[in-house]
């Protein structure tokens, strides 16, 4: 994102409006109803027809908000599968945002940092997600989730999006564990972990509530993936065994998240919130090696395609002379993980298949 996140550089529309008062008065949008046919998006059958996708979170949903000078996602070999060159996505190709956009039936929303150069794409929503961030400040200086929602609110105040836009939109919120990495690096203790996890989920609860109060009708939030099964945790066992201690902490996060989402649905009375269970879907893939999810097969699901040649190097690293300091597999489609923490496009395809039943709830009454 541009350096100081100047929210004031937006174009202002002439018909700027007292919409914010309407939004903040907590008006509820149309209730979702109708049956969703598996994989066939006949949107005209539903009273809830999403026209936009707004995205908040981290590298699991970022499609190009990181600064090119800093993020590995802008370096080769990221993006080699799609779009054929680095595009700011932390994968060889598409990420969760792209799959959800396809499901909703809109073009993958514009990264916030391109908002002034590709205005014709504003109609599909916007992606505020930024690799490396969390609900709190993490190790990067870039916008945490509160700041991302501030930027969204700024666009609403400037009438870039109106109430109808918001009421016919879906939000994706991803939390993939950067707060916890930062906690460890900042010398957080094992004893303090449960209370820190509680504070992360409490803040996430407030963030979700705020997105809804701004007028977004359906909000999908990710459960934390099994951090103990990411390649950075399994490398020590040659990518064979998950770290049970890490996954125990993940399970606490996810249990608290379920309580928070149940509370939100209870408070809003319109079942606006649903959890995309990345934990269960990742585990399903590991257990079945991708079988049962279309024509997908992963020989060793925990071994990544792109690996740094030693612990000090990561995927995309080069030395001063430009020599590659990583190895890359022959076929990214044969691996679930792309690098030390992120799925390949094929990995996300498998996760998306596993999430299909939950995604169908976006279009059906869940009261």
Automatic annotation (TrEMBL):
<protein>
    <submittedName>
        <fullName>GDSL esterase/lipase At5g03610-like</fullName>
    </submittedName>
</protein>
<feature type="signal peptide">
    <location>
        <begin position="1"/>
        <end position="32"/>
    </location>
</feature>
<dbReference type="InterPro" id="IPR001087">
    <property type="entry name" value="GDSL"/>
</dbReference>
<comment type="similarity">
    <text>Belongs to the 'GDSL' lipolytic enzyme family.</text>
</comment>
<keyword id="KW-0732">Signal</keyword>
<dbReference type="InterPro" id="IPR035669">
    <property type="entry name" value="SGNH_plant_lipase-like"/>
</dbReference>
<dbReference type="Pfam" id="PF00657">
    <property type="entry name" value="Lipase_GDSL"/>
</dbReference>
<keyword id="KW-0442">Lipid degradation</keyword>
<keyword id="KW-0378">Hydrolase</keyword>
<keyword id="KW-0443">Lipid metabolism</keyword>
<dbReference type="InterPro" id="IPR036514">
    <property type="entry name" value="SGNH_hydro_sf"/>
</dbReference>
